[in-house]
């Protein structure tokens, strides 16, 4: 299934006013389990740094919800959010100007080509690398763009059922994915090839998270893929499943998993 048309429709609905967009961000923060894991890692990284004038790269910013969250966490931080979609970048720049956060800027950039040597204290890549064939080139560019001691944080599907692929005969649930998921050792080796030396990787989306993902993401996307009329039914659907998803997300984010359909990877320059 192609996910981008559904994302575009959601963006059109919630981009109508700054208030709706803020609401959209908060809903994504609660529903998307990867956000729970990413926020946990970012809070740990940010301890003692929220007043420092740091530079952050949001590599593949999408809707911009992580740049929004980070800009509220550290008001002195300067955040550059890059993406390949011109319309989305323009919308995001307009939104952040409207809400008075000039420390966040969006730009159209291709991560395979983009490099800003020794510029960033943190780089963030959330559900991006599964869309890019030339992943080692991207890792090299980010490594070069980080300052010494800078950290790259990655969230991406794993090969343990990520993208809803469980055997060789299946294909990715999201057709924009160029790979079904990373082997935990494979992505660490690719980061070493790109120049990173210290690397930590762990699984996310264990058993609780996989149930939550089906309830909060897979089934709604399947419904919307059938007909946009299901937008009318979504509030009623989420009214039922939302409490269960919150509990499942909380359990997953606070548990260590021997296996999982997602990966959280940190790498330092």
UniProtKB/TrEMBL annotation:
Organism: Hymenobacter nivis
Membrane-traversing stretches: 229-251
Entry's Gene Ontology molecular function annotations: methyltransferase activity
GO biological process per UniProt: methylation
Domain Methyltransferase: 54-170
Name this polypeptide is given: Class I SAM-dependent methyltransferase
InterPro entries on file: Methyltranfer_dom, SAM-dependent_MTases_sf
Swiss-Prot/TrEMBL keywords: Membrane, Methyltransferase, Transferase, Transmembrane, Transmembrane helix
